[in-house]
Amino acid sequence: MSTRYIIVSDLHLGTADATEDFLLWGDSREGPPTLSERVEAARALDQKFIAFLDAQYDAALSIGASAHLILLGDFVDLWQAKSPGESAADTLVRILETHVGVVAALRAWIGRGGAFTLVLGNHDHALCHRKAWALISEILPGLNASVGGAPTWSFRDEAAGLWAVHGHRWDRWNRIRPRRTSDCCVGRIAMQFLVTPLEREHPLADKGDALDFLHLLAQSIPDAAVGRQHLALVDLLRGIERGAPCFADFLAAALGDGAFDVARLRSAREGDFDRALRRELRRRRGTRSNDAPRNLRTIVHGHTHVAGRREFEGVTVLNAGTWRPILSCDGTVSQPLDYVVVQEDAGTCLAEIKRCEPLRIGASPLPPARDEVPTSTRRPRRMPA
Q1: At 13, phi and psi to the nearest 5?
Q2: What span, in angstroms and rounded, lies between the C-alpha atoms of 45 and 101?
Q3: Residue 96: which of 12, 10, 13 has the closest Cα?
Q4: 266 - beta bridge partners?
Q5: Contact (Cβ atoms closer than 8 angstroms) between residue 38 and residue 17
Q6: What's the average model confidence in pLDDT over 106-122?
Q7: Is this structure's pTM higher than 0.70?
Q8: Nearest-angstrom CA–CA distance, 169 and 277
Q9: Exposed, middle or buried: residue 362 (CB in 10 Å: 0-12, 13-18, 19+)?
Q10: pLDDT higher than 70, residue 296
């Protein structure tokens, strides 16, 4: 029997507070402003996801294929939802209680016979903690059965030549070593001390890429208001970072300590990510790896939040995008609902980026959209802080 992989990345489920990202954003740049409105907006996207899973399982069944759902990292957002001193397991409970519909849909998927693999990303890396993983495994029996039931940071299908990873391994600011419980990195420090506090007053703070966030920071904190804590954070990050591009340097520029060069930042971030990916592909060529297939033909990743297709070193690289709102370069907020379908059959692998009823928020009305509309092929341009 062939396998149909449905790969979804970067849901960022939260607790319906001001930092919640898994919700239907609406037609305002500020999003749902009150708690009750955020709860309803989260439930609305939950229902969208439930219907999506039902349709995907039926689509696999209709062609006689087995259905395998892969959530490709940042399924839950522990970086933003976690309270000081709270364990990852306790944070997970609060998130799943907020999104009971998603939990029920995943349990139903497994109950119907679908395989379900959760690949960890940077925002949900702490799910590898023993108590957190035991809890989510109890709630979702059969989770990661295809990889032995343990936490994993990648998924491979040797016959199809498929390798699915979150993608933060190629992001200098968010790189975390797999199989280690610590998720300390520049991105988490910036999220904790800069992004999350700013988001409570400016909801778009984390909806764009690092450039959008730093630009907002530069506008929101005038020179006179730059306190010792911000300058100390710059010094802390400079002590941690090694090699360009350094987040500390861009942060210092945003705080008024240098020229804020938009083109330089975006080019440096995108170039650094792609160079790291290419280096890994060259290093793996002709060598055996514990996590990637030997005959690697297709890589699916997320992390940058914008779907796209590229060719690197003879390998097709697909970005699965996100379901959370994203701030576009033109200043509008969109919610694309992207995902990837990989169909493996008799040693062949067909991979395609798809879109579930595209939504565009804050822009001119679009014509009625159909389900499963392939996205255009474009380079990823969003890199979370």
Answers
A1: -65, 135
A2: 10
A3: 13
A4: none
A5: yes
A6: 97
A7: yes
A8: 9
A9: middle
A10: yes
C-alpha closest to that of 260 among 207, 214, 204, 194: 214
Q: Is 238 exposed, middle or buried (0-12, 13-18, 19+ CB in 10 A)?
A: middle
**Residue 5, both tokens:** 């992989």
Residue 205 amino acid letter:
A
Residue 74 and residue 302 in contact, taking contact as beta carbons nearer than 8 Å: yes
Phi, psi of 29 (to 5 degrees): -65, -20
Structure tokens at 116: 């379900």
* 75-84, 169-178, 241-250, 336-345: which is most confident: 75-84
Question: In the chain, what are the domain boundaries?
Answer: 3-174+272-361, 186-263
Look-up: residue for tokens 């009823």? Answer: 357
Strands 298-301 and 162-165, by their bridges, are parallel
Instruction: Give the C-alpha separation, 76 to 190, whole Å.
Output: 18
Over residues 52-64, mean pLDDT:
95
Residue 377 vs residue 126, higher pLDDT: 126
The token pair at 146 is 């295809």
Q: What radius of gyration do the chain's Cα atoms show?
A: 20
Characterize 73-87 residue by residue with b for buried, 16 or more Cβ atoms within 10 angstroms of its Cβ, and e for exposed. bbbbbbbbbbeeeee
Task: Extract long-range pairs of 326-334: CB within 8 Å, 24+ residues apart.
Answer: 326/207, 326/208, 326/382, 327/204, 327/207, 327/208, 327/212, 328/208, 329/381, 332/360, 332/361, 332/362, 332/363, 333/25, 333/29, 333/31, 333/204, 333/207, 333/361, 333/362, 334/359, 334/360, 334/361, 334/363
Question: How does pLDDT run across 175-227, given as a tens digit for each residue?
Answer: 998 888 899 999 999 999 889 988 988 899 999 887 788 878 877 766 545 56
Q: Which CATH architecture has domain 3-174+272-361?
A: 4-Layer Sandwich (3.60)
193 by Cβ neighbours in 10 Å (0-12 / 13-18 / 19+) ranks as middle
CA distances (Å), origin 84, targets 81, 90, 246, 314, 339? 10, 11, 27, 45, 33
Return all residues near 79 (Cβ < 8 A) that are at least 6 apart.
122, 123, 183, 188, 191, 192, 196
- Assess contact for 361 and 60: CB atoms under 8 A: no
